[in-house]
Amino acid sequence: MLSKNIDPVNAALAQISGVKSLGEFDGVLSTLDTAAHEASRALNVADAPAAAAEDRHDLANALSVLQEDVANVRGAIKARDVCALSSAEAKLGDSQGLASVSTLLAKLSAVGYSASLSVPPLPKQQSRSLDNGTMVSKGKLRGEGVFKVDNGGKVNAVVSLVLNGKAVHSVFVAKGQKASVEGVEDGTYDVYVSEGADWDSATKAFTQNCAFTKFEDNFPYETGSTSTSWEITLQPVADGNAKTNDVDPNSFPQP
């Protein structure tokens, strides 16, 4: 009876190793949510010998906690608190419900109820960063223009000068720091900003607490008798007049 209830949970967990995207992972989490709920409900109404009754009740509660943890991960994906497969999997790996279910199944096995939880390897949450001013992507930088960024906010950012929908120059600006790009070529650029925590250099994206914005105004660079210099602040300032709009991550130019 116990294995019958736990098997759907294990089946859902087994799917994790094959997912390739956040969307796929969210689908697996939906299945896991349902499996944990059904197992908890079944165990709450099942009869059990006195020796196992308390542990079975605790197991039902632990499965309910697991369901809540899974729902929290799904909520974090929707809110972009986790915005990469690795960070979403790590959040699931931190689930107290997963740990409690495994522990209680081991206790029940000791009194003759053979079942276990097969949790796949899950990554740990990371907090990777770059040195302030690091160029994430760098064009030729053969111009005369200068682009300055003041990040007085509380999160790291990557700011991109975008030409014809493609990031030409992207600079990492650490929270509370300033950075600049020198040698910007003539052209009219859009400015996109990605903010968050844990910079993944392989994917050129933050994995946690992500936000994606674009400045409403564009930034023309033209070299004549003088060169062009622009400076932006990422935090609100008293006399600031620049506005930004949120951007769909799927249409955000990769730095």
CATH fold type of the largest domain: Immunoglobulin-like
Strand content range: 25-35%
CATH class of the largest domain: Mainly Beta
Q: How large, in whole angstroms, is the Cα Rg?
A: 25 Å
What does this structure look like?
It is a single chain. By secondary structure, the chain is α+β, with helices and mostly antiparallel strands. It has two domains: 2-109; 135-251, Immunoglobulin-like, CATH 2.60.40. The protein is 35% helix and 27% strand. It contains five helices and ten strands. It has helices at 2-14, 22-45, 50-78, 85-93, 96-109; strands spanning 135-137, 145-151, 156-163, 166-173, 177-184, 187-200, 205-215, 219-221, 229-233, 244-246. The strands form two sheets. Strands 1, 3, 4, 6, 7, 8 and 10 form a seven-stranded antiparallel beta sheet that branches. The chain has a three-stranded mixed beta sheet with strand order 5-2-9, with no helix packed on it. A hairpin with a 4-residue loop joins strand 6 (187-200) and strand 7 (205-215). The protein is elongated. 33% of the residues are buried. The mean pLDDT is 94.
Name a few traits of the molecule.
Immunoglobulin-like; 255 residues; 10 strands; alpha+beta; three-stranded mixed sheet; seven-stranded antiparallel sheet; 5 helices
Helices and strands, with pairings:
Blueprint: H1 2-14, H2 22-45, H3 50-78, H4 85-93, H5 96-109, E1 135-137, E2 145-151, E3 156-163, E4 166-173, E5 177-184, E6 187-200, E7 205-215, E8 219-221, E9 229-233, E10 244-246
Parallel strand pairs: 2-9
Antiparallel strand pairs: 1-4, 2-5, 3-4, 3-6, 6-7, 6-8, 7-10
